[in-house]
C-alpha cells in the first residue's frame, strides 16, 4: 500500500511533520523550567475553547488557541505569584477547563465522538486549510524557539542571572507560555489534547540521554519529534490504530532505547572527567590520607600504548581500569 497515493494520508503526514517539529521545541524550555506537565494542563483548558467553537459555529482551532493562550497567561501569573496555594489554583483551572468543555459541547448538541476527535486526535481527517494553519503556527513557534534560544535558555536556567543580565524575565516567561498554548492547539488534531504533553516532553527526555549541550538537545529533540510523529502516523495506517497512541508509544520506545545508552555515556564521561584539585590538596609526591592504596596486580604497566583511558590528575596521570581510576605509586596502586 502506497500511503502517498491517498490525499488524506499526505495531509496527515504533513500535519504530523510540522507538529513533531514544533512541540519538542517548546517542550525543551518547559522541561528546563521543570514545568513538563504544563502542556497537559493547557490541553485541559483548551477543551473549553474547542467546545466554544462547536457552540458558536466558529473554527474550534481558533477558539482553542484564544482560550489556551488566556489559560497559559493565567497559569504563568499564578506560578509567578509563588503562593503556596498556587498548585491548588492550577488544579481548579485544569479541571474546570475540561468540565466546562464537556458541558458546553452538550449544550451545543454535539456528540461525544466529536469532542473525542480533539481529545485523542484525528489527524487523518484534517483538511488542507488545517495543514496550512499548522504549518504557519509551527513555523512561528520554531522561529521564536530557535531565534531567541540564548535569552529563553538564560531565563529558563536561572531567572536571577537573567535579571542581572538585563533580560525581562516576565516577558520571556509569558512568551514561552503563549508558545506552549499555541503548540497544544496545533497538536490537538495530531495526538489529541490529552496526549499532547507527551509529544512535548518525551522527545526532549530522549534527547537529553544522548546530548550534553542545550542547543544540541533542542535540535535533537525536534528531529526525534518529527521521526516519532511521521513514524506513528505510518504505523497507525498499517495496524489500523489511533495515530495519537502510536505516535506517543513510538516516542516512548525511543526513550527506552536511549536510556541505557545515556547511562553508559554519563558513566564514561564521569570517569574521563579531569580532576578539579582543591587548593590544599597535596601533590602526588605527598599523597594524603584521601588517596587509598589498593592491592592490585597487572599483567602490564599503564602507559600511552596500554589502551586504557588516560586522565590527567595533578602532576601525574590516572588510568581508567575495570570501571575505576588509579595510578601507580611506588610498588602499589592508589585508587583516585
From TrEMBL:
It comes from Nocardioides panacis. GO terms for biological process: response to zinc ion; transmembrane transport. It holds the Pfam family ABC-3. It is a multi-pass membrane protein. The keyword Membrane applies. This is Metal ABC transporter permease. It is found in: Cell membrane. InterPro entries: ABC_TroCD. The lineage of its organism: Bacteria, Bacillati, Actinomycetota, Actinomycetes, Propionibacteriales. Its main location: membrane. The chain crosses the membrane at residues 12-30, 61-78, 90-112, 132-155, 218-239, 245-265. Keywords: Membrane, Transmembrane, Transmembrane helix, Transport. GO terms for cellular component: ATP-binding cassette (ABC) transporter complex. Residues 293-305 have a biased composition (Basic and acidic residues). Belongs to the ABC-3 integral membrane protein family. Residues 278-308 are annotated as: Disordered.
Amino acid at each position: 500500500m502506497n500511503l502517498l497515493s491517498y490525499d488524506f494520508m499526505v495531509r496527515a503526514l504533513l500535519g504530523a511533520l510540522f507538529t513533531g517539529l514544533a512541540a519538542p521545541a517548546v517542550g525543551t524550555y518547559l522541561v528546563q523550567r521543570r514545568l513538563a506537565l504544563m502542556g497537559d494542563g493547557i490541553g485541559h483548558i483548551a477543551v473549553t475553547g474547542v467546545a466554544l467553537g462547536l457552540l458558536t459555529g466558529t473554527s474550534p482551532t481558533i477558539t482553542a488557541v484564544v482560550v489556551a493562550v488566556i489559560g497559559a497567561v493565567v497559569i504563568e501569573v499564578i506560578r509567578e505569584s509563588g503562593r503556596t496555594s498556587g498548585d491548588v489554583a492550577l488544579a481548579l483551572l485544569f479541571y474546570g477547563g475540561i468540565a466546562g468543555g464537556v458541558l458546553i459541547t452538550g449544550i451545543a448538541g454535539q456528540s461525544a465522538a466529536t469532542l473525542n476527535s480533539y481529545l485523542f486526535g484525528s489527524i487523518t481527517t484534517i483538511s488542507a486549510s488545517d495543514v496550512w494553519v499548522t504549518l504557519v503556527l509551527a513555523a512561528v513557534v520554531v522561529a521564536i524557539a530557535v531565534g531567541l534560544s540564548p535569552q529563553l535558555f538564560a531565563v529558563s536556567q536561572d531567572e536571577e542571572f537573567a535579571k542581572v543580565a538585563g533580560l525581562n524575565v516576565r516577558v520571556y516567561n509569558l512568551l514561552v507560555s503563549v508558545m506552549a498554548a499555541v503548540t497544544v492547539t496545533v497538536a490537538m488534531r495530531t495526538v489529541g489534547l490529552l496526549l499532547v504533553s507527551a509529544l512535548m516532553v518525551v522527545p526532549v527526555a530522549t534527547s537529553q540521554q544522548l546530548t550534553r549541550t542545550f542547543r544540541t538537545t533542542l535540535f535533537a529533540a525536534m528531529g526525534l519529534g518529527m521521526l516519532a510523529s511521521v513514524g506513528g502516523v505510518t504505523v497507525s495506517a498499517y495496524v489500523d490504530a489511533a495515530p495519537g497512541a502510536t505516535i506517543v508509544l513510538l516516542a516512548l520506545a525511543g526513550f527506552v532505547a536511549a536510556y541505557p545508552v545515556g547511562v553508559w555515556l554519563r558513566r564514561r564521561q564521569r570517569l574521563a572527567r579531569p580532576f578539579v584539585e582543591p587548593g590544599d590538596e597535596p601533590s602526588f609526591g605527598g599523597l594524603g590520607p584521601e588517596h587509598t592504596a589498593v592491592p592490585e596486580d597487572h599483567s602490564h604497566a599503564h602507559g600511552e600504548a596500554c589502551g586504557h583511558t588516560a586522565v590527567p590528575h595533578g602532576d601525574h596521570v590516572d588510568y581508567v581500569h575495570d570501571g575505576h581510576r588509579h595510578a601507580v605509586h611506588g610498588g602499589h596502586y592508589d585508587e583516585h
